[in-house]
């Protein structure tokens, strides 16, 4: 489909008109099958009215944020297992090396 207007027409009217060599061809939506091909690193979901495409590639920043969230979750789980009061502060220290 060439445009959003044509897709809207297909959804609302149940058909779409396409002009070929000065002749108007009418296609009913029951006879139209549209496949979307999404590039690697992207995902798409939606319905007849709207489609959303998400960039799911992991950047170094996203990986780092995920590691921080995992660390926080691990600390919270340990705190819960030790029955520590939620309102109390926890002091945590750790060290890391630059070696892979």
Quote the distance from N terminus to C terminus. 50 Å
Radius of gyration over alpha carbons? 26 Å
Query: Averaging pLDDT over every residue, what do you get?
Result: 85
Tertiary shape: elongated
> Which class do the helix and strand fractions yield?
alpha+beta
What is the total number of structural domains? 2
| Number of helices, counting only DSSP H or I runs of 4 residues or more | 2
Assembly type? single chain
Attribute tags:
100 residues, alpha+beta, 2 domains, two-stranded antiparallel ribbon, 4 strands, elongated
Quick recap:
It is built from two helices and four strands, in the order αββββα. The protein is an alpha+beta fold and 100 residues long.
3D structure, described in words:
The mean pLDDT is 85. The strands form two sheets. A two-stranded antiparallel ribbon has the order 1-2. A two-stranded antiparallel ribbon has the order 3-4. It is α+β, with helices and mostly antiparallel strands and 100 residues long. The protein is built from two helices and four strands.
